[in-house]
Automatic annotation (TrEMBL):
Pfam families xrefs: Melibiase_2, Melibiase_2_C
Protein name as it appears in the record: Alpha-galactosidase
Intracellular or extracellular location(s): Lysosome
Molecular function via GO: alpha-galactosidase activity
UniProt record, GO biological process: glycoside catabolic process; glycosphingolipid catabolic process; oligosaccharide metabolic process
Membership in a protein family: Belongs to the glycosyl hydrolase 27 family.
Function recorded in the entry: Catalyzes the hydrolysis of glycosphingolipids and participates in their degradation in the lysosome.
Presence of the UniProt keyword Flavoprotein in the record: no
Organism: Platysternon megacephalum (big-headed turtle)
Reactions mediated catalytically: a globoside Gb3Cer (d18:1(4E)) + H2O = a beta-D-Gal-(1->4)-beta-D-Glc-(1<->1)-Cer(d18:1(4E)) + D-galactose; Hydrolysis of terminal, non-reducing alpha-D-galactose residues in alpha-D-galactosides, including galactose oligosaccharides, galactomannans and galactolipids; a globoside Gb3Cer + H2O = a beta-D-galactosyl-(1->4)-beta-D-glucosyl-(1<->1)-ceramide + D-galactose
EC number: 3.2.1.-
Subunit structure comment from the entry: Homodimer.
Length: 435
């Protein structure tokens, strides 16, 4: 009881502080940089028949295996931390005290034991619930049980909640539900990342109030579910660019726009398209939640997902989301401001016919003319790591990009110092090697 009262007081104090300083991000101290981890949905969906699909059904075994691999195969070392369960983990009924319970055949040890296992590996456990009467796959929803479910998750040692928005009733119930679950999680006193889909379910009827959403959620889905297909990645990027005026500025430490899972390492994307997803998810300061099979992943996909330079851009402490600067013919130029006055720049070739094409642009396009003023060093990060040397504000870059591929650069501004006269690399023609 003492602990519960203590944490309740702590939570109340936190909310008083939030009210005093005004509505910022959800100040639970979490997600200061975009969340990194693994989430089962896109790759494993709602496979519940373990007799038929023992290796891919949604069971404690699957999550334990992924946790093992996250440690043994270097994923944890580069920052992937949360092992997340999506829909279809539950039993179809609550227990005799109305608590959610896992399917007894697929999770015989229970979620508490699974969380202990994941924690013993130095990782964190994510779970899934729904604001409405039922989850999207028809399992029990949290409507009417927000406090009980939040407490159950906290008692189990859960570290992240993905809260879906199927079967929610009215728009008011949707909003109240997302708010109440945030408050309920806070009241437990446990640190639980709160991943929402609130704006996605709101959008068809109402314009989301992102200031409010950020006040309650650590990240939020805006757009349709991602699929293992170029069309899906392309549409997600286009939606984001078209709505950037209303969503980019709201992102920052504690609260992020979530364009959904990384599908790299699966079946549907070409190598260039996988480069595009990784590069643009870094530009968008997106949560990096992979949905793939870590037991069967190519060395190439692993190299890309574990690329420290791309991850450093995604996790940049300034926490500013990037945006599309221009769309010309079939090219798109995106940039993201980074700490120390640096910029990440992505050149995406949207043309789906023909071969590699060259996009030419002046460095004065980047960072409102400031990124290379008076000079800058440019490093190509993807498709391969290459040093492009020094440039200045009149440099012109000719960049060759494969169809549906992306070249990702990091541009670091160099101030003028008396003893350092930069040697410029003007009009460099570049042909990135493909792995
Ligand atoms: C919705 C969500 C998906 C996934 C499924 C599970 O479609 O947007 O990410 O969680 O539900 O049923």
């Amino acid at each position: 009881m003492g602990t519960a009262v203590g944490s309740w007081r702590g939570a109340t104090l936190a909310w008083v502080l939030v009210l005093l300083v005004g509505a910022g991000a959800l100040e639970n101290g979490l997600a200061r940089t975009p969340t990194m981890g693994w989430l089962h949905w896109e790759r494993f969906l709602c496979s519940t028949d373990c007799a038929r699909e023992p290796l891919s059904c949604i069971s404690e075994h699957l999550f334990m295996q992924m946790a093992d691999l996250m440690v043994s195969d270097g994923w944890k070392d580069v920052g992937y931390e949360y092992v997340c369960i999506d829909d279809c983990w539950m039993s179809l009924t609550r227990d005799d005290q109305d608590r959610l319970q896992p399917d007894p055949e697929r999770f015989p040890s229970g979620i508490r034991k699974l969380a202990d296992y994941v924690h013993s590996k130095g990782l964190k456990l994510g779970i899934y619930g729904d604001v409405g009467n039922k989850t999207c796959a028809g399992f029990p929803g949290s409507y009417g049980y927000y406090d009980l479910d939040a407490q159950t998750f906290a008692d189990w040692g859960v570290d992240l909640l993905k809260f879906d928005g199927c079967n929610y009733g009215t728009q008011d119930q949707l909003a109240e539900g997302y708010r109440n679950m945030s408050l309920a999680l806070n009241k437990t006193g446990r640190s639980i990342v709160y991943s929402c889909e609130w704006p996605l379910y709101m959008r068809p009827m109402q314009k989301p109030n992102y200031t409010e959403i950020k006040h309650y959620c650590n990240h939020w889905r805006n757009f349709a579910d991602i699929y293992d297909a170029w069309n899906s990645v392309k549409n997600t990027l286009e939606w984001t660019a078209l709505h950037q005026d209303s969503i980019v500025d709201v992102a920052g430490p504690g609260g992020w726009n979530d364009p959904d899972m990384l599908v790299i390492g699966n079946f549907g994307l070409s190598w260039d398209q996988q480069l595009t997803q990784m590069a643009l998810w870094a530009i968008m300061a997106a949560p990096l939640l992979m949905s793939n099979d870590l037991r069967h992943i190519s060395p190439q996909a692993k190299w890309l997902l574990q690329n420290k330079d791309v991850i450093a851009i995604n996790q940049d402490p300034l926490g500013k989301q990037g945006y599309r600067i221009t769309k010309e013919n079939n090219f798109e130029l995106w940039e993201r401001p980074l700490s120390g006055g640096a910029y990440a720049v992505a050149v995406l070739n949207r043309q789906e016919i023909g071969g590699p094409q060259i996009f030419s642009f002046s460095t004065s396009f980047i960072g409102n003319g400031l990124a290379c003023n008076p000079a800058c060093s440019i490093q190509q990060i993807l498709p391969t790591s290459e040093d492009w040397g020094l440039h200045n504000w009149v440099s012109f870059l000719n960049i060759e990009v494969n169809p549906t591929g992306t070249v990702l650069l990091k541009v670091v501004v160099i101030g003028e110092t008396p003893d350092e006269k930069p040697v410029m690399n003007i009009n460099k023609k570049l042909s990135p090697d493909i792995l």
